[in-house]
Specification:
Helices cover 42% and strands 16% of the residues. The protein is of the alpha/beta class. The strands form two sheets. Strands 1, 2, 3, 4, 5, 7, 8, 11 and 12 form a nine-stranded mixed β-sheet that branches. A three-stranded antiparallel β-sheet has the order 6-10-9, with no helix packed on it. The protein is globular.
Length: 287
């Protein structure tokens, strides 16, 4: 039986990319010329060409400024989910604001698309710091899964295993081990830094070894090869941001041609939960 993988997409404009997270604050986003609609159109065309559906994680800022774009995404059969923005220099968590935001933007996304919103994503640092109360509040708000988007290197001890507990799932991007660290198999940087043959091999090995889908993640800005040249946080981040960006469409074309991809809800909520219920094993881990 062919295993279908899960694809997630972070809806990010070029100035929201990690290379500029310290240089450009959230309060400055509205001062820059947006190109997100161009990038999203290119992503949607590529997905349509390969009959791929994906889960698009959206910042609250984007919900407010681009509702028609989000409606277009939903109309093409993709899933929309909320993504909480975590400032890189975040020192103190405002629990009340976090809860208010994921309730408000869940409702706004539902109104824009006419569909329920069940997915949530935030930075790994927020999930690790607040997991106990955050999970409870997400369940109360009607979310069914959380998909943390971690850094390039993830320590296995931080709990990157995906688990089903009381029908709420923690589904993180699939990783492979290099020495003592876990690295995401399919993310915006990894697909550009490796030769495609290695990414393909890692996907195949993960599926063969675990008999479970790969959960991958890309960002929309990587499809915008005409984005303006702006100052990044460092020279290295600038180099990494632009590395092989023109080759990305071809890389994704190969990836989508060789493997099948669907939304997180299609892969996990409709299939993994059914399997979990059949086996009646509460708290079973799902890689």
């Amino acid at each position: 039986m062919t295993i279908i993988n899960a694809l997630t997409i972070n809806v990010e404009d070029y100035f929201q990319a990690p290379a500029f997270q310290y240089s450009i604050k959230e309060s400055d986003w509205g001062l820059l010329s947006p190109r997100i609609e161009y990038a999203v159109d290119r992503v949607l065309l590529l997905l349509s060409d390969h009959h791929v559906t994906a889960t698009f994680f959206v910042y609250g800022w984007t919900v407010n400024h681009f509702p028609l774009m989000l409606k277009k995404i939903a109309e093409q059969g993709h899933e929309l989910a909320y993504r909480h923005y975590c400032p890189p220099d975040m020192k103190h968590l405002n629990q009340r604001d976090i809860i208010a935001n994921f309730n408000r933007y869940k409702d706004q996304l539902s109104q824009v698309t006419g569909r329920g919103v069940v997915g949530y994503r935030s930075g790994m640092q927020l999930c690790c710091a607040t997991l106990a109360w955050l999970e409870e509040e997400l369940v109360l708000a009607g979310y069914e899964y959380s998909s943390a988007n971690g850094p390039n290197k993830v320590d296995k001890s931080e709990g990157v295993i995906n688990c089903v507990v009381d029908h709420f799932q923690h589904l993180n991007v699939s990783t492979h081990k290099v020495l003592t660290k876990q690295y995401e198999i399919i993310n915006t940087n990894s697909i550009r830094l490796r030769k495609y043959e290695l990414s393909r091999k890692l996907v195949a090995c993960f599926i063969e070894e675990t008999r479970t889908p790969v959960l991958g993640c890309i960002s929309t800005w990587v499809m915008d090869n005409l984005q303006p040249n702006i100052r990044a946080d460092s020279l290295f981040k600038k180099w990494l941001h632009g590395y092989h960006i023109r080759e990305t469409p071809l890389i994704l074309h190969q990836l989508f041609s060789e493997y099948d991809w669907q939304t997180v809800s299609d892969i996990y909520l409709h299939k993994v939960l059914q399997l979990n219920s059949m086996k009646k094993r509460k708290g079973r881990c799902v890689s």
